[in-house]
Protein backbone atom coordinates (compact mmCIF):
# COMPACT_ATOMS: atom_id res chain seq x y z
CA UNK A 1 0.00 0.00 0.00
CA UNK A 2 1.13 3.57 -0.67
CA UNK A 3 0.85 4.56 2.97
CA UNK A 4 3.43 1.89 3.89
CA UNK A 5 5.82 3.27 1.25
CA UNK A 6 5.08 6.75 2.55
CA UNK A 7 5.97 5.82 6.14
CA UNK A 8 9.09 3.96 4.99
CA UNK A 9 10.26 7.10 3.13
CA UNK A 10 9.72 9.19 6.28
CA UNK A 11 11.73 6.75 8.38
CA UNK A 12 14.50 6.22 5.83
CA UNK A 13 15.07 9.95 5.43
CA UNK A 14 14.50 10.69 9.14
CA UNK A 15 12.00 13.41 8.33
CA UNK A 16 9.99 13.44 11.56
CA UNK A 17 8.44 11.18 14.22
CA UNK A 18 5.07 10.64 15.93
CA UNK A 19 6.25 12.89 18.76
CA UNK A 20 6.52 15.90 16.44
CA UNK A 21 3.76 18.47 16.02
CA UNK A 22 3.46 19.01 12.29
CA UNK A 23 2.05 21.94 10.34
CA UNK A 24 0.68 20.81 6.96
CA UNK A 25 0.49 23.28 4.06
CA UNK A 26 -2.91 22.50 2.51
CA UNK A 27 -4.04 24.23 -0.66
CA UNK A 28 -7.09 22.03 -1.15
CA UNK A 29 -5.60 20.31 -4.20
CA UNK A 30 -5.09 16.60 -4.73
CA UNK A 31 -1.54 16.34 -3.38
CA UNK A 32 -2.01 18.21 -0.10
CA UNK A 33 -5.33 16.47 0.60
CA UNK A 34 -3.74 13.04 0.15
CA UNK A 35 -0.77 14.08 2.31
CA UNK A 36 -3.04 15.27 5.12
CA UNK A 37 -5.07 12.06 4.99
CA UNK A 38 -1.99 9.83 5.14
CA UNK A 39 -0.56 11.75 8.08
CA UNK A 40 -3.92 11.55 9.86
CA UNK A 41 -4.27 7.80 9.30
CA UNK A 42 -0.69 7.23 10.50
CA UNK A 43 -1.45 9.05 13.77
CA UNK A 44 0.70 12.14 13.37
CA UNK A 45 -0.20 15.33 15.28
CA UNK A 46 -1.12 17.84 12.60
CA UNK A 47 -2.41 21.33 12.06
CA UNK A 48 -3.45 22.93 8.76
CA UNK A 49 -2.11 26.13 7.20
CA UNK A 50 -3.99 27.54 4.20
CA UNK A 51 -3.18 30.65 2.18
CA UNK A 52 -5.78 32.51 0.14
CA UNK A 53 -3.73 34.39 -2.45
CA UNK A 54 -6.87 36.12 -3.80
CA UNK A 55 -5.81 35.49 -7.40
CA UNK A 56 -8.74 33.43 -8.72
CA UNK A 57 -11.79 35.22 -7.35
CA UNK A 58 -14.60 32.91 -6.32
CA UNK A 59 -12.37 29.89 -6.88
CA UNK A 60 -9.95 31.09 -4.19
CA UNK A 61 -12.86 31.68 -1.80
CA UNK A 62 -14.14 28.18 -2.51
CA UNK A 63 -10.71 26.69 -1.76
CA UNK A 64 -10.63 28.44 1.61
CA UNK A 65 -14.11 27.26 2.57
CA UNK A 66 -13.25 23.70 1.49
CA UNK A 67 -10.09 23.59 3.62
CA UNK A 68 -11.89 25.07 6.64
CA UNK A 69 -14.48 22.29 6.37
CA UNK A 70 -11.65 19.75 6.03
CA UNK A 71 -10.16 20.91 9.33
CA UNK A 72 -13.51 20.35 11.01
CA UNK A 73 -13.70 16.88 9.48
CA UNK A 74 -10.24 15.86 10.74
CA UNK A 75 -10.73 17.87 13.96
CA UNK A 76 -7.35 19.59 13.70
CA UNK A 77 -6.34 23.24 14.25
CA UNK A 78 -6.38 25.46 11.17
CA UNK A 79 -4.61 28.71 10.32
CA UNK A 80 -5.81 30.80 7.39
CA UNK A 81 -4.47 34.04 5.96
CA UNK A 82 -5.12 36.21 2.89
CA UNK A 83 -2.59 38.10 0.81
CA UNK A 84 -2.88 40.76 -1.85
CA UNK A 85 -0.45 38.78 -3.97
CA UNK A 86 -0.89 40.88 -7.09
CA UNK A 87 -0.20 44.09 -5.17
CA UNK A 88 2.84 42.58 -3.49
CA UNK A 89 4.22 41.41 -6.83
CA UNK A 90 3.83 44.88 -8.36
CA UNK A 91 5.30 46.67 -5.33
CA UNK A 92 8.36 44.39 -5.17
CA UNK A 93 8.80 43.84 -8.95
CA UNK A 94 8.44 40.09 -8.61
CA UNK A 95 6.55 37.44 -10.54
CA UNK A 96 3.29 36.14 -9.10
CA UNK A 97 4.86 32.74 -8.40
CA UNK A 98 7.88 34.18 -6.58
CA UNK A 99 5.64 36.57 -4.63
CA UNK A 100 3.31 33.77 -3.57
CA UNK A 101 6.26 31.70 -2.39
CA UNK A 102 7.81 34.55 -0.39
CA UNK A 103 4.50 35.42 1.26
CA UNK A 104 3.46 31.92 2.21
CA UNK A 105 6.80 30.73 3.56
CA UNK A 106 7.23 33.85 5.70
CA UNK A 107 3.77 33.22 7.13
CA UNK A 108 4.49 29.52 7.70
CA UNK A 109 7.63 30.48 9.62
CA UNK A 110 5.61 32.80 11.86
CA UNK A 111 3.18 29.99 12.70
CA UNK A 112 6.02 27.61 13.55
CA UNK A 113 7.64 30.21 15.76
CA UNK A 114 4.47 31.16 17.64
CA UNK A 115 2.21 28.10 17.74
CA UNK A 116 4.48 25.33 19.00
CA UNK A 117 4.84 23.27 15.83
CA UNK A 118 8.14 21.47 15.22
CA UNK A 119 8.13 21.69 11.45
CA UNK A 120 6.27 22.21 8.20
CA UNK A 121 5.40 19.56 5.62
CA UNK A 122 4.48 20.24 2.02
CA UNK A 123 3.06 17.92 -0.64
CA UNK A 124 5.88 18.18 -3.19
CA UNK A 125 6.14 14.84 -4.99
CA UNK A 126 8.43 13.08 -7.48
CA UNK A 127 6.89 14.80 -10.51
CA UNK A 128 7.49 18.20 -8.88
CA UNK A 129 11.10 17.18 -8.42
CA UNK A 130 11.42 16.16 -12.06
CA UNK A 131 9.96 19.48 -13.21
CA UNK A 132 12.27 21.41 -10.87
CA UNK A 133 15.37 19.68 -12.21
CA UNK A 134 14.29 20.16 -15.84
CA UNK A 135 13.66 23.85 -15.12
CA UNK A 136 17.07 24.28 -13.50
CA UNK A 137 18.78 22.35 -16.29
CA UNK A 138 17.15 24.54 -18.92
CA UNK A 139 18.24 27.73 -17.15
CA UNK A 140 21.70 26.41 -16.21
CA UNK A 141 22.83 24.77 -12.99
CA UNK A 142 25.60 22.71 -11.42
CA UNK A 143 25.58 19.30 -9.80
CA UNK A 144 24.08 20.76 -6.61
CA UNK A 145 21.07 22.06 -8.53
CA UNK A 146 20.63 18.71 -10.31
CA UNK A 147 19.91 17.06 -6.95
CA UNK A 148 16.49 18.66 -7.02
CA UNK A 149 14.31 19.45 -4.03
CA UNK A 150 15.70 18.29 -0.66
CA UNK A 151 13.52 15.92 1.37
CA UNK A 152 14.30 17.90 4.52
CA UNK A 153 15.75 21.34 5.19
CA UNK A 154 16.14 23.70 8.11
CA UNK A 155 13.39 26.27 8.36
CA UNK A 156 14.13 28.96 10.91
CA UNK A 157 15.53 28.57 14.42
CA UNK A 158 15.16 24.96 15.52
CA UNK A 159 12.45 24.22 12.92
CA UNK A 160 12.43 22.10 9.76
CA UNK A 161 10.69 21.70 6.43
CA UNK A 162 9.98 18.17 5.18
CA UNK A 163 8.56 16.77 1.95
CA UNK A 164 7.45 13.17 2.67
CA UNK A 165 5.88 12.61 -0.78
CA UNK A 166 9.05 13.43 -2.68
CA UNK A 167 9.64 9.78 -3.53
CA UNK A 168 6.09 9.25 -4.74
CA UNK A 169 4.76 9.76 -8.28
CA UNK A 170 1.64 11.88 -8.64
CA UNK A 171 -0.17 9.04 -10.38
CA UNK A 172 0.20 6.95 -7.20
CA UNK A 173 -1.03 9.86 -5.08
CA UNK A 174 -4.15 10.15 -7.25
CA UNK A 175 -4.74 6.39 -7.04
CA UNK A 176 -4.54 6.61 -3.24
CA UNK A 177 -7.03 9.50 -3.17
CA UNK A 178 -9.49 7.63 -5.33
CA UNK A 179 -9.17 4.38 -3.37
CA UNK A 180 -9.86 6.30 -0.14
CA UNK A 181 -12.76 8.33 -1.60
CA UNK A 182 -11.04 11.64 -1.01
CA UNK A 183 -12.31 14.83 -2.62
CA UNK A 184 -10.18 17.78 -3.63
CA UNK A 185 -10.27 21.10 -5.43
CA UNK A 186 -8.94 21.66 -8.95
CA UNK A 187 -6.90 24.83 -9.51
CA UNK A 188 -7.92 26.12 -12.96
CA UNK A 189 -4.57 27.90 -13.36
CA UNK A 190 -2.83 24.50 -13.42
CA UNK A 191 -4.26 23.94 -16.90
CA UNK A 192 -2.62 27.10 -18.29
CA UNK A 193 0.84 27.21 -19.85
CA UNK A 194 1.66 30.81 -18.91
CA UNK A 195 3.75 29.63 -15.95
CA UNK A 196 7.07 27.95 -16.75
CA UNK A 197 6.41 24.97 -14.49
CA UNK A 198 3.08 24.31 -16.17
CA UNK A 199 4.72 24.53 -19.59
CA UNK A 200 7.24 21.88 -18.56
CA UNK A 201 4.46 19.71 -17.08
CA UNK A 202 2.19 19.91 -20.11
CA UNK A 203 4.61 20.15 -23.02
CA UNK A 204 8.00 18.69 -22.01
CA UNK A 205 7.28 15.83 -19.63
CA UNK A 206 4.77 14.09 -21.96
CA UNK A 207 7.40 14.01 -24.72
CA UNK A 208 9.90 12.44 -22.31
CA UNK A 209 7.28 9.92 -21.18
CA UNK A 210 6.66 8.99 -24.82
CA UNK A 211 10.37 8.29 -25.16
CA UNK A 212 10.51 6.43 -21.85
CA UNK A 213 7.18 5.17 -20.40
CA UNK A 214 9.02 4.41 -17.13
CA UNK A 215 10.22 7.99 -16.79
CA UNK A 216 9.34 8.39 -13.10
CA UNK A 217 11.20 5.21 -12.08
CA UNK A 218 14.18 6.02 -14.28
CA UNK A 219 14.25 9.54 -12.89
CA UNK A 220 14.37 8.28 -9.28
CA UNK A 221 17.23 5.92 -10.09
CA UNK A 222 19.15 8.65 -11.92
CA UNK A 223 18.55 11.09 -9.06
CA UNK A 224 19.98 8.58 -6.60
CA UNK A 225 23.15 8.32 -8.70
CA UNK A 226 23.42 12.11 -9.07
CA UNK A 227 23.18 12.51 -5.30
CA UNK A 228 25.99 9.99 -4.91
CA UNK A 229 28.17 11.89 -7.38
CA UNK A 230 27.29 15.14 -5.61
CA UNK A 231 28.28 13.74 -2.22
CA UNK A 232 31.68 12.74 -3.61
CA UNK A 233 32.05 16.15 -5.26
CA UNK A 234 31.17 17.97 -2.04
CA UNK A 235 33.75 15.95 -0.13
CA UNK A 236 36.45 16.74 -2.70
CA UNK A 237 35.42 20.40 -2.69
CA UNK A 238 35.62 20.58 1.10
CA UNK A 239 39.10 19.06 1.05
CA UNK A 240 40.27 21.47 -1.66
CA UNK A 241 38.74 24.45 0.14
CA UNK A 242 40.55 23.56 3.36
CA UNK A 243 43.80 23.38 1.40
CA UNK A 244 43.63 26.50 -0.77
CA UNK A 245 41.27 28.98 0.95
CA UNK A 246 42.44 31.34 3.68
CA UNK A 247 40.25 33.91 5.42
CA UNK A 248 42.06 36.99 6.72
CA UNK A 249 39.81 39.52 8.37
CA UNK A 250 37.14 40.27 5.75
CA UNK A 251 39.15 38.98 2.80
CA UNK A 252 39.20 35.49 1.28
CA UNK A 253 42.36 34.30 -0.50
CA UNK A 254 42.03 31.37 -2.93
CA UNK A 255 45.47 29.97 -3.77
CA UNK A 256 45.82 29.73 -7.54
CA UNK A 257 48.53 27.16 -8.27
CA UNK A 258 46.80 24.07 -6.78
CA UNK A 259 43.43 25.21 -8.12
CA UNK A 260 44.78 25.49 -11.68
CA UNK A 261 46.22 21.97 -11.41
CA UNK A 262 42.83 20.44 -10.65
CA UNK A 263 41.19 18.57 -13.54
CA UNK A 264 37.82 20.05 -12.56
CA UNK A 265 39.33 23.29 -11.29
CA UNK A 266 36.92 25.58 -13.12
CA UNK A 267 33.91 23.72 -11.71
CA UNK A 268 35.41 23.80 -8.21
CA UNK A 269 35.98 27.53 -8.57
CA UNK A 270 32.37 28.05 -9.65
CA UNK A 271 31.16 26.33 -6.48
CA UNK A 272 33.60 28.30 -4.30
CA UNK A 273 32.41 31.61 -5.78
CA UNK A 274 28.70 30.83 -6.00
CA UNK A 275 27.95 32.12 -2.45
CA UNK A 276 29.49 35.44 -3.48
CA UNK A 277 27.07 35.91 -6.40
CA UNK A 278 29.52 35.17 -9.23
CA UNK A 279 27.59 33.48 -12.04
CA UNK A 280 29.17 30.67 -14.05
CA UNK A 281 29.63 32.85 -17.14
CA UNK A 282 31.79 35.24 -15.13
CA UNK A 283 33.64 32.34 -13.48
CA UNK A 284 34.59 31.12 -16.95
CA UNK A 285 36.16 34.52 -17.67
CA UNK A 286 37.92 34.57 -14.28
CA UNK A 287 39.34 31.13 -15.03
CA UNK A 288 40.54 32.22 -18.46
CA UNK A 289 42.28 35.32 -17.09
CA UNK A 290 43.80 33.32 -14.23
CA UNK A 291 45.30 30.79 -16.65
CA UNK A 292 46.67 33.73 -18.65
CA UNK A 293 48.24 35.13 -15.46
CA UNK A 294 46.39 38.43 -15.98
CA UNK A 295 47.49 39.87 -12.64
CA UNK A 296 45.42 42.80 -11.39
CA UNK A 297 42.28 41.98 -13.39
CA UNK A 298 39.22 43.02 -11.39
CA UNK A 299 35.81 41.33 -11.42
CA UNK A 300 32.66 42.45 -9.65
CA UNK A 301 29.51 40.65 -8.55
CA UNK A 302 26.53 42.35 -6.95
CA UNK A 303 28.12 41.88 -3.51
CA UNK A 304 31.87 41.26 -3.90
CA UNK A 305 35.00 42.22 -5.76
CA UNK A 306 37.62 39.71 -6.93
CA UNK A 307 41.14 40.42 -8.14
CA UNK A 308 43.59 38.04 -9.76
CA UNK A 309 46.74 38.54 -7.71
CA UNK A 310 50.17 36.95 -8.14
CA UNK A 311 49.50 33.82 -6.13
CA UNK A 312 45.80 33.97 -5.25
CA UNK A 313 42.35 35.18 -6.11
CA UNK A 314 41.52 37.92 -3.61
CA UNK A 315 37.86 38.26 -2.70
CA UNK A 316 36.34 40.97 -0.52
CA UNK A 317 32.82 42.21 0.18
CA UNK A 318 31.84 45.54 -1.33
CA UNK A 319 30.06 46.36 1.94
CA UNK A 320 33.37 46.05 3.79
CA UNK A 321 34.91 48.95 1.85
CA UNK A 322 34.95 52.15 3.93
CA UNK A 323 33.68 55.51 2.73
CA UNK A 324 36.54 57.86 1.69
CA UNK A 325 35.30 60.66 3.97
CA UNK A 326 35.56 58.63 7.17
CA UNK A 327 38.09 59.95 9.69
CA UNK A 328 38.85 59.17 13.34
CA UNK A 329 40.78 61.17 15.94
CA UNK A 330 43.25 59.65 18.38
CA UNK A 331 43.92 61.93 21.35
CA UNK A 332 46.92 61.68 23.64
CA UNK A 333 46.51 59.02 26.33
CA UNK A 334 43.57 57.39 24.52
CA UNK A 335 43.86 53.66 25.38
CA UNK A 336 41.74 52.39 22.49
CA UNK A 337 40.34 53.67 19.19
CA UNK A 338 37.53 51.44 17.84
CA UNK A 339 36.31 51.82 14.23
CA UNK A 340 33.81 49.74 12.26
CA UNK A 341 36.75 48.11 10.42
CA UNK A 342 39.44 47.57 13.07
CA UNK A 343 40.57 48.67 16.53
CA UNK A 344 43.79 50.41 17.55
CA UNK A 345 45.00 49.46 21.01
CA UNK A 346 47.28 52.15 22.46
CA UNK A 347 49.83 52.05 25.28
CA UNK A 348 52.44 54.56 26.49
CA UNK A 349 55.71 53.47 28.04
CA UNK A 350 59.15 54.86 28.77
CA UNK A 351 61.86 54.19 26.23
CA UNK A 352 64.00 51.11 26.84
CA UNK A 353 66.76 49.37 24.97
CA UNK A 354 64.39 46.46 24.27
CA UNK A 355 61.94 48.83 22.58
CA UNK A 356 64.65 50.20 20.31
CA UNK A 357 64.45 47.22 17.99
CA UNK A 358 62.98 47.28 14.51
CA UNK A 359 59.69 45.47 14.95
CA UNK A 360 58.89 43.06 12.12
CA UNK A 361 55.17 42.79 12.92
CA UNK A 362 53.43 45.15 10.48
CA UNK A 363 50.40 45.31 12.77
CA UNK A 364 52.39 47.11 15.47
CA UNK A 365 53.79 50.62 15.44
CA UNK A 366 56.32 51.98 17.96
CA UNK A 367 56.60 55.76 17.65
CA UNK A 368 58.44 58.56 19.43
CA UNK A 369 55.78 60.55 21.30
CA UNK A 370 57.87 63.74 21.21
CA UNK A 371 57.74 63.79 17.38
CA UNK A 372 53.96 63.60 17.21
CA UNK A 373 51.34 66.32 17.00
CA UNK A 374 48.14 65.29 18.82
CA UNK A 375 45.40 64.51 18.19
CA UNK A 376 46.47 62.01 15.57
CA UNK A 377 44.12 61.34 12.64
CA UNK A 378 43.16 58.01 11.13
CA UNK A 379 41.92 58.20 7.52
CA UNK A 380 42.05 56.39 4.20
CA UNK A 381 45.05 57.15 2.02
CA UNK A 382 44.39 59.46 -0.91
CA UNK A 383 45.86 60.00 -4.36
CA UNK A 384 48.98 62.16 -4.03
CA UNK A 385 49.78 61.01 -0.48
CA UNK A 386 53.44 60.38 0.27
CA UNK A 387 55.55 59.47 3.29
CA UNK A 388 59.10 58.54 4.24
CA UNK A 389 59.10 54.75 4.78
CA UNK A 390 61.25 53.37 7.57
CA UNK A 391 64.32 51.68 6.16
CA UNK A 392 64.60 53.87 3.06
CA UNK A 393 67.16 56.32 4.51
CA UNK A 394 64.67 59.16 4.55
CA UNK A 395 63.65 58.92 0.89
CA UNK A 396 60.11 60.07 0.05
CA UNK A 397 57.70 57.66 -1.61
CA UNK A 398 54.15 57.94 -2.86
CA UNK A 399 51.76 55.75 -0.92
CA UNK A 400 50.39 54.38 -4.20
CA UNK A 401 53.89 53.27 -5.26
CA UNK A 402 54.58 51.86 -1.81
CA UNK A 403 51.40 49.73 -1.95
CA UNK A 404 52.43 48.49 -5.39
CA UNK A 405 55.83 47.53 -3.99
CA UNK A 406 54.08 45.73 -1.13
CA UNK A 407 52.00 43.83 -3.71
CA UNK A 408 48.71 44.87 -2.12
CA UNK A 409 45.90 43.47 -4.31
CA UNK A 410 44.00 46.00 -6.37
CA UNK A 411 40.68 45.55 -4.56
CA UNK A 412 42.32 45.96 -1.13
CA UNK A 413 44.25 49.17 -1.85
CA UNK A 414 41.23 51.39 -1.37
CA UNK A 415 40.81 49.99 2.16
CA UNK A 416 44.31 50.94 3.38
CA UNK A 417 44.31 53.44 6.25
CA UNK A 418 47.00 55.86 7.38
CA UNK A 419 47.77 57.44 10.74
CA UNK A 420 48.64 61.13 10.48
CA UNK A 421 50.21 63.73 12.74
CA UNK A 422 49.03 67.00 11.29
CA UNK A 423 49.50 66.59 7.53
CA UNK A 424 52.28 64.02 7.83
CA UNK A 425 51.68 60.27 7.48
CA UNK A 426 53.38 58.54 10.40
CA UNK A 427 52.11 55.01 9.74
CA UNK A 428 50.61 53.26 6.73
CA UNK A 429 48.53 51.12 9.04
CA UNK A 430 49.30 47.45 8.82
CA UNK A 431 52.33 48.05 6.63
CA UNK A 432 55.10 50.45 7.76
CA UNK A 433 55.81 53.48 9.93
CA UNK A 434 57.47 56.66 8.65
CA UNK A 435 61.21 57.14 9.21
CA UNK A 436 61.02 60.54 11.01
CA UNK A 437 58.81 59.11 13.77
CA UNK A 438 60.91 56.06 14.59
CA UNK A 439 62.48 55.45 17.98
CA UNK A 440 65.99 56.78 18.43
CA UNK A 441 68.54 56.99 21.24
CA UNK A 442 66.99 60.36 22.12
CA UNK A 443 63.48 58.96 22.60
CA UNK A 444 62.09 59.23 26.14
CA UNK A 445 58.45 58.16 25.72
CA UNK A 446 57.10 55.52 23.36
CA UNK A 447 53.59 55.12 22.02
CA UNK A 448 52.82 51.51 21.08
CA UNK A 449 49.84 51.07 18.71
CA UNK A 450 48.54 47.60 17.91
CA UNK A 451 46.17 46.93 15.00
CA UNK A 452 43.43 44.43 15.82
CA UNK A 453 40.61 43.08 13.65
Overview of this protein structure:
The chain is built from 14 helices and 22 strands. With 453 residues, the chain is an alpha+beta fold. A hairpin with a 4-residue loop joins strand 13 and strand 14 (343-350). Helix 2 packs across helix 7 (170-179) and helix 11 crosses helix 12. It is elongated and about 100 Å long.
What are its keywords?
453 residues, alpha+beta, Uridine Diphospho-n-acetylenolpyruvylglucosamine Reductase, domain 3, 3 domains, 6-stranded mixed beta sheet, 5-stranded antiparallel beta sheet, 14 helices, 22 strands
Give the structure's gist in a few sentences.
The protein is α+β, with helices and mostly antiparallel strands and 453 residues long. Helices cover 39% and strands 22% of the residues.
- Biggest pleated sheet: 6 strands, mixed
Q: If you consult CATH, what is the topology of the largest domain?
A: Rossmann fold
Mean pLDDT: 93
State the helical fraction: 25-40%
Which CATH class of the largest domain applies here?
Answer: Alpha Beta
Q: Could you state the CATH homologous superfamily of the largest domain?
A: HUPs
Tally the structural domains.
3
Please identify the structural class as seen in this structure.
alpha+beta
Tally of individual helices = 14
- CATH architecture of the largest domain, by name, is 3-Layer(aba) Sandwich
Residue windows where pLDDT falls under 50 for at least 5 positions: none
Question: What is the end-to-end distance?
Answer: 61 Å
| SS strand fraction | 15-25%
Radius of gyration: 31 Å
Strand order, main sheet: write it out. Answer: 3-2-1-4-6-5
The global form is elongated
| Total strands | 22
Amino acid sequence: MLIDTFLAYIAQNRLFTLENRILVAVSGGLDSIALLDMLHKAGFQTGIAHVNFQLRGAESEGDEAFVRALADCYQVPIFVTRFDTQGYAEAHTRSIQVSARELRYAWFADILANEGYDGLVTAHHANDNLETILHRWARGTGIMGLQGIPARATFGAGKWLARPLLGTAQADIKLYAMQNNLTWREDSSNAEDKYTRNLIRHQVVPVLQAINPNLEQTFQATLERVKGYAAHFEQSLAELKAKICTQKHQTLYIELAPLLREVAGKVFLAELLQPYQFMYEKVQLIWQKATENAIGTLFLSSTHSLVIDREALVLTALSALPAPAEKYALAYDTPCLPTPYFTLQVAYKPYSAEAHILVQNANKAFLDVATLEFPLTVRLWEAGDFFYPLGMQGRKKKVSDFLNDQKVPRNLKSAVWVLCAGKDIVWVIGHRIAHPYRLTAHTTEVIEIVLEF
